Amino acid sequence: MVVVQTADFDPAALYAALQARAGDAAGATVSFIGTVRDYAPGETTRSLFLDHYPGMCEREIQALCDTAAQRWRILEATVVHRVGELALGDRIVFVGVASAHRGDAFRACEYIIDALKTRAPFWKRETLTSGRAFWVRQDEADAHKTAQWDTRTPHHES
Amino acid sequence: MSGATIEVLYFAQVAEHMGTRRETLALAAPTTAAQWLADLVARCPALAPAERLKLAVNQEHVDHRATIRPGDEVAVFEPVTGG
Fold first, then answer.
1. Judging by DSSP bridges, how do beta strands A2-5 and A84-87 pair with one another?
2. Which of A40, A90, A158, B63 has CA 20 to 30 A from A10's CA?
3. Phi, psi at residue B61, to the nearest 5°?
4. A2-153 has which fold?
5. Tens digits of per-residue pLDDT, A47-89?
6. ipTM value of the model?
């Protein structure tokens, strides 16, 4: 399930719905929640605005979930990503993966959030408490992490 | 005449530089993404360097060697920063 929305989400409700879809075979559920943090060194973040490409966002994230399902044994995945105005501490993204085994769930969840950061068309504009605003630059470490997944051998295929 | 145009979408900082989020541009014949981007940057120098810009054609990521054809939906943006 992939959803892009402005409203906040309820992690407990998303977890319950994920488990219900995955069924009794789901022995392991791993979830990741990203929140708005203080990005800039030396100055305090007041808020974030997230721009996005409607349609392509959902397609890219669904493609990442499909790739995860090919690489690891997972039963279901949920990704909810927020857009629009967000305040410091607000939830931005939920990634949940249900699997029979924790190893596949952990790896698939980490892959989806890593790849989302470099492939899903979202852009953050940060506003500081001083009122200064700027578009956030892509973290080279994030790009490197995603590139690593392309060369790493999945556990269950080895 | 829709076949002789492309729908162009701009996002985030690129949209700010362009002063719009969407426009219809004439495109009579297929061209490379690199050439098309060079023309766009010539029109809006604030977008430079062109090498930094990312493109999607019909909602798929493409590199600058891709071909843009009349009728395509082309999106121009900087590296993504979601998550």
1. unpaired
2. A40
3. -60, 135
4. Aldehyde Oxidoreductase; domain 3 (3.90.1170)
5. 999 999 999 999 999 999 999 999 999 999 999 999 999 999 9
6. 0.94
Chain A contact set for B59 (CB, 8 A): 53, 55-56, 59
CB atoms within 10 A of CB A88: 15
- The single residue listed with the structure tokens 């791993």 is A30
Asked if the model's pLDDT at residue B27 lies above 80, the reply is yes
- For A35-41, what is the mean pLDDT? 81
Instruction: Measure CA of the first residue to CA of the last residue in chain A; give whole Å.
Output: 28
Better-predicted residue by pLDDT, A148 or A39: A148
Residues A114/A149, Cβ–Cβ less than 8 Å:
yes
Measured in angstroms, the CA of B75 and the nearest CA of chain A are apart by: 9
Nearest CA in chain A to B81: A123
Over chain B, what is the mean pLDDT?
A: 96
Tokens representing A65 are 């979930």
Query: For tokens 């010539």, what's the residue?
Result: B42
Residue A93 phi/psi, 5-degree rounding, is -140, 145
CB A73 within 8 A of CB A104: yes
In chain A, residues with a C-beta closer than 8 Å to the C-beta of B77 are: 53, 121, 123
The CATH class of the B2-77 domain is alpha beta
Q: Do B82 and A121 touch (CB under 8 A)?
A: yes
CA–CA gap between residue A117 and residue A139 (Å, rounded): 9
